[in-house]
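General statements about sequence and structure are easier to judge against a single worked case. For one protein, we set the task of working out the structure tokens from the amino acid sequence alone. The sequence in question and its structure tokens are set out directly beneath this paragraph.
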Amino acid sequence: MTNIRVGSGFDVHAFGAGDHVMLGGVRVAYSQGVVAHSDGDVILHALCDALLGAAGLGDIGQHFPDSDPTWRGAASGSLLQQVLDLLRPRGWQIVNVDITLIAEAPKLAPHRAAVRASVAMLLRLDEDAVNIKATTTERLGFPGRSEGLAAQATVLIAAEGA
């Protein structure tokens, strides 16, 4: 049997003071920032959680706790690189990722290509192995009230050579 695994991740951050949000490693100008210990990139945080889950390595909070000052203001791309450094020696390679941003705003459409390219570069994947999409909650719940944003990620990983 081929050794493949699926992982899912979810992250959420409330809006706060600031003039931009980070989405998949891309700085997106916005009227607010997010309240977060690191840079608050919900896309990369959900992706980290999905990868860690698929590999059976816990979750982002175990590896990068917000109680640890080391991670204050950290770029989420660096967190993702550390997650990849955990997967590679165990023989895991990423097959594909599917990520959904959940927010009324900022709108993803003008930034989708840049976010996709950024995530693909961070993961060292071809862009066609990375899917980035967005949805609203039809003005329901905290995203619908524009109180914050969330992301969910699904990943498929396989043992090298599988």
